[in-house]
Each structure stands twice: as C-alpha cells, then as structure tokens.
Write a structure and sequence with these properties.
The chain folds into 4 domains: about 100 residues, Immunoglobulin-like (Sandwich), CATH 2.60.40.2550; about 90 residues, Sandwich (Immunoglobulin-like); about 80 residues, Immunoglobulins (Immunoglobulin-like, Sandwich); about 120 residues, Immunoglobulin-like, CATH 2.60.40. The protein is about 0% helix and about 45% strand.
Length: about 450
C-alpha cells in the first residue's frame, strides 16, 4: 500500500517500498480571517488540510463556533454551533444553513480533523458579524423646499460607530421619488467630525430627489431618507432704472447760524450708489460730497437744497426740498434796562427833574419828544463803557435837555435796543391837571415796535 501526504514529496521504488518522507498532519482556517467583520449571518468557513491518510480517502473536518473573542478553549466550554464537512482533498469549506444563522456579535472558530494517532486542530480565528448599517442622514435642504438656480448644497450627519467608513455617496434622481432609474448624478465626499456636505450643480429647473449612502467595514449600506426639492429658473434681469434720490435734514426746523445735517436716504434696486453731489440753492452748482453734508444758513426764510445721486450703472436722479430757516429765539437784554423819570406837577403840566436810562454797554437809547414845547425832537445815544456812571454792570445815561417844564399834550418815548435781544420801551404822556401816565413794555429786536414782554 502506498501512503503519502498531500503536497509532500513521495519517493517511489520498483518493488517493495523502501522509504516515505511525509509532512506532519495539519488543518487551518483561511476564511474568515482573524478580526474580520461581515454582515453575513451564515458565513462560509473554509480552510486547508495536510494529512497522512491514503489518497482519496474521505475524512471529516469538524468546525466549532464559540461566542466571544477567545484566546483559548477551556474544557467544558460549549460551542454555539458545530458544523461537520466530509472532505477527500486538501481544501474544505462549510456554511451554516439559514436555520443556523448566527446572531450579530463576535465569535471564535476552531477546526478539527481526526488523525492517527490523535486529532489535529487549527488555530483560533475571531470574527464579528455586524448587521447594523451606518446611521447617515440628509437634513439639508428641507424636504419639499425650493430654491432658485442650477445648484444646491446638500448636507447631513454621518454614522460614527466603529467600522463606519468616512466616504458618503450622494445620489441625485430626477423627479419626486427614487425609482428604478439610474441617478442623474452621484457625488462622493468625505465625512468629517460626524457631518458631511456636497454640492450638486449644472441642474435644469425641475424637481429632484436626493439620498445619501454610507458603508461600513461589514458591507452594511446605510441610506438616508430621501429628500425632494425643487429648483426654479432665476427671474430675468430687470431693466436698469435710475436711483430714487431723497434726503432728510436735522434739525427739522433750522435756526440761522445753527449747524444743519443733510443726510441722503436715496436707494437703488439694481445698482449700488457711488456718488453724491449737493447744491444749496435752486440755481446753485452741484458740489461732489458724501452721503451726509453739514452746513449752516445765514439768513432766515425758505432755502432750496438739491441732492444728485449717481449709481454704478451711470444713471442718476435729483431730489429737491425746501428748508424753512427761522431766526434764533430772542432773549431779553441782560441786564434789562431801567428808565427813571421824576418831577413835580404844575398848573400847565410837569416840571421834570430826572430823566435817566440805565442800560448795558452796546445798547442804544433813543428819546423822542412829540408836542408843543419839546426842547428837541429826538436824542439818540450809544451806551459805552465811559458814557456815564456804572451801576450793577450797566451805564446810567442822563438826558438833561429834557429835565425841564413840559406842557400838557407832550409825549416822551424812550426806546432802548440792542441787536438780537428784546429791549425796553417807555412812554410818558403829560396831562393837564393830572399826573402823567406812564406805559412800560418791551421793544422788538428791530428796535422800533413796542411788544408785550415774554412771560418766561
């Protein structure tokens, strides 16, 4: 009888066998590989064997599958599954039936073959069954949303469990659902820190449906829920229109000499504004400036202001407004003047002994006389620092020409004025046989018209 070991050298001789060199018997597992991951719950387990049995003689390889990642098989440990395969060659394989499907988890497999003088065993091989696909999502754009243009940015979250691969494939389909048709576009991007984004472009107006996919090491394919969105064509460009020029001013009622801010509120729907020019008058020349111009008006009344704005497309327009400028509010002359008149009553009228005006420097005092017996029609004097006696910051002027006898019917008027302030007005009327009547009031800023004095 001729004995040999598969794969070993055999020495033949004519007549009786004189010598045989045989390798020691062995059995090994080639599939699955150690630490491999699969989604197949009935994985094929295969390997090789080296035997000293006769050629063509069948033998049995027993495969035992244990739960967990083991480094040694302890006595009495029961396998979760035992498989046997009869083999005559040097390659063997065995597959659990669907009724023997393994639950997801980690397993250790051992192969054993009966040999003479004792069985031979393979090394331990550990593998994992993983049936959970990556949890990939597609959250942007929102389902049912719409946008204008020919491209869209898609994004979502990626699965980050051990074994989940980082490439994310985004498939884009025409229409509102995913049918049997091939995708219009497939884009693969890399997930980063649990998220991903991709851009699909070159699209015509219409409705599209997208889906994201992610694989893991076990071959599980995670798919997001489909998202449908619509793309619309951009509206045709509007024809160019001139800007809408307008401006405001602060304060709304300017005062002579007060700074006034003129601020442009102009707009343009199609082109940015690039130039501003102001004209302070209906016929004044435009001067290039900025959006805000600060100026003053030296005279009261209505003043026309114009603004010309120019856009980047070269179109321009002009806005015009009338600003009503008022005089500064008048204040009482300070210190306020004092007029003193004293005398005695006579049969013909009065004999005045004192006529003085007490006023601040810079004021003008004008005394007029009407009626028979006036020494002069008027006398006007400007109050200076050396015009007379000083008293409480004012100068006392004495009108000696009028310190005399005046007959009934004579009227004296004293007007004390100073530019920009409200002055003093006094009128004395000489009566026959009665005391004179005296009227005191204020004088307008022009220095001519008596007015009622302000209450505050």
């Amino acid at each position: 009888m001729l004995r040999f070991s598969l794969g070993a050298m055999v020495t033949l001789a004519v007549g009786p066998v004189t010598a045989v060199q045989a390798a020691p018997p062995s059995v090994s597992i080639t599939t699955p590989t150690s630490a491999s991951v699969t989604s197949n719950q009935t994985p094929t387990i295969s390997g090789t064997r080296e035997s000293i049995l006769e050629v063509g003689l069948e033998t049995t390889v027993t495969v035992r599958i244990y739960a967990g990642a083991l480094t040694a098989i302890t006595p009495g440990l029961a396998p979760v599954q035992t498989l046997e395969v009869t083999v005559a060659g040097n390659v063997w394989s065995v597959t659990p039936t669907p009724g023997q499907a393994l639950a997801p988890g980690t397993y250790t497999v051992l192969a054993e073959e009966e040999e003479v003088p004792e069985p031979v065993r393979s090394g331990l091989v550990t593998f994992t069954i993983d049936t959970t696909p990556p949890q990939v999502t597609l959250t942007s754009p929102a389902n049912g949303s719409s946008a204008i243009g020919g491209s869209r940015v898609l994004g979502g979250a990626a699965g980050t469990e051990p074994g989940d691969l980082v490439p994310i494939t985004v498939q884009l389909f025409a229409g509102s659902s995913i049918g049997p048709q091939l995708p219009l576009e497939a884009v693969t991007v890399q997930a980063s820190q649990g998220s991903w984004s991709a851009t699909v472009g070159g699209l015509n107006p219409g409705t599209y449906t997208a889906r994201a996919e992610q694989l893991d090491e076990a071959g599980n394919n995670g798919m997001s829920a489909p998202v449908t969105f619509t793309l619309a064509a951009p509206p045709p460009p509007r024809p160019s229109a001139p800007p809408l020029a307008s401006f405001k001013w602060f304060p709304s009622i300017p005062v002579v000499g007060e700074p006034v801010s003129l601020a442009s509120s102009s707009t343009d729907q199609t082109s940015p504004l690039t130039a501003f020019a102001w004209a302070l008058g209906s016929n004044a020349v435009f001067n290039v400036g900025k959006q805000v111009l600060t100026t003053t008006f030296t005279t009261p009344g209505d003043h026309v202001v114009r603004l010309r704005v120019t856009a980047a497309d070269g179109l321009s327009s002009v806005a015009s407004a009338t600003l009503h400028v008022i005089r500064p509010p008048l204040v009482l002359m300070a210190p306020f003047p004092v007029v003193r008149i004293a005398g005695i009553l006579t049969s013909a009228g009065v004999n005045l002994s004192v006529i003085t005006a007490q006023a601040p420097p810079g004021a003008r005092v004008r005394l007029t006389c009407r009626g028979r017996g006036c020494p002069t029609r008027s006398e006007s004097r400007l109050v200076g620092s050396s015009s007379g006696k000083r008293r409480a910051g004012m100068v006392v002027l004495v009108f000696r020409r009028f310190e005399r006898s005046l007959t009934a019917g004579v009227i004296l008027e004293i007007k004390i004025s100073k530019p920009g302030t409200i002055g003093k007005y006094t009128r004395l009327t000489i009566r026959h046989g009665k005391l004179p009547t005296r009227v005191d009031s204020c004088l307008d800023a022009s220095g001519f018209k008596p007015i009622a004095c302000p209450t505050s």
